[in-house]
Amino acid sequence: MDNQNSSSVRTATGRREGVLIALGSSLTIMGSVMVAPMLPKMGMEFGPTHPQAEMLLPLAITGPALAIAVCAPLAGWLSDRTGRKNLLIIATLLYALLGVLPAFLNGLDGIVISRLLFGCAEAAIMTCCTALIADYWHAEERLKFVNLQVVSIGLVGSAFFVIGGVLGEQSWRLPFYLYLLPLLLIPFFMRVLWEPKHHAAQQVNDTTSRVATVPLIVGYGMIMFGMVLNFIVPIQAPALLVSIGVVSTTKIGLSAGLSLLATLAGSLLWPVFRRSFGIAGCNALLMALIGVALWLLANANSYNKVIIAVAIHGVGAGLMVPNIMAAIMNALPAPVRGRGIGGFTSCLYLGQFISPIIVGILIASGTDLPGAIIRLSIASAAIATIWLIVSFFKGNKRTEMADKPAA
């Protein structure tokens, strides 16, 4: 049997596919964490010579997120039409080439454009990797690899935040060469990954499968608003620390590092909480944790209280992505899975992008930064209450079904 035919009936039986997909997914976090520490040095070089440097420099970091939000649905559609594996390989190649390009550019405009195109490649990688997890595995196996994906993203992000900062001490251009590393993944993608059978016969067999529209829409809304809440800590916490007299960059950096560690802890705890409370119960828990954390953050008057708030927030944030992603995967039949996950990816990054905008709107409405965060914490608590009620009724329904005598 040739490779083409064998790929149509092959099933994932080992961890190799999972490890490769997790590494591929981790490329998306590399897109931002390695550039963020370079912003001051880039400002020193381009600030005096470019009249719009103050506006364009942040786009070097936030631009890819916006590009992902715009391009992810298209990437999902392409993966449904042309296949996940080939699109992932092409996107990884483009990721490496566009990622390293700023190291050779001398104009800020060109750097920003290259970063926006780089975000399009990221969109395809994230969408294909997540869709492949849903294609390859089912039930508990799928949830296990969803969690592996999220944990890997956190670990790689933490490592490359440090590596990028160290290399950037020499030159802001040097960390961009790290974007060539994913080229090493391409031969393994070609050899180990296989194309799921989504076309022809399977599409005929799945014609009765329909998208679970309500869970899908709810999941999209949850991940978008969740990312608005999640990005309050990395974006707004430094300003809050300064406002209470903490100006040490070391202390501010430690709070950011603790947030990442707490997020990893939340991701590792997710399987335990999901088995105990279910997906709806986990949604209630994570939104409650984030709501409490934001309230504590807004009212903190010392560094130690900020640290406590950041730690609680990180655990909630770590629970969020795998829990909502699992619900999205369950709502999507195979023929439209790429498009549906592309929508999820789009909402995730759109939430990140609009987080500071929403905080700014709340401040403009007549409050200060702590007041804006308190309003969002109340909204998070309200959503947690709704999910708690949903979880209660789902639990009662399961109990009634279990107690119902067999016909």
UniProtKB/TrEMBL annotation:
PROSITE patterns the UniProt entry points to: MFS
Pfam families: MFS_1
Membrane topology: Multi-pass membrane protein
InterPro entries the UniProt entry points to: MFS, MFS_dom, MFS_Efflux_Transporters, MFS_trans_sf
Subcellular compartments: Cell membrane
Keywords: Cell membrane, Membrane, Transmembrane, Transmembrane helix
Name this polypeptide is given: MFS transporter
Major localization class: membrane
Sequence intervals crossing the membrane: 20-39, 59-79, 86-105, 111-133, 145-168, 174-194, 214-232, 252-270, 277-300, 306-329, 341-366, 372-393
Domain Major facilitator superfamily (MFS) profile: 17-399
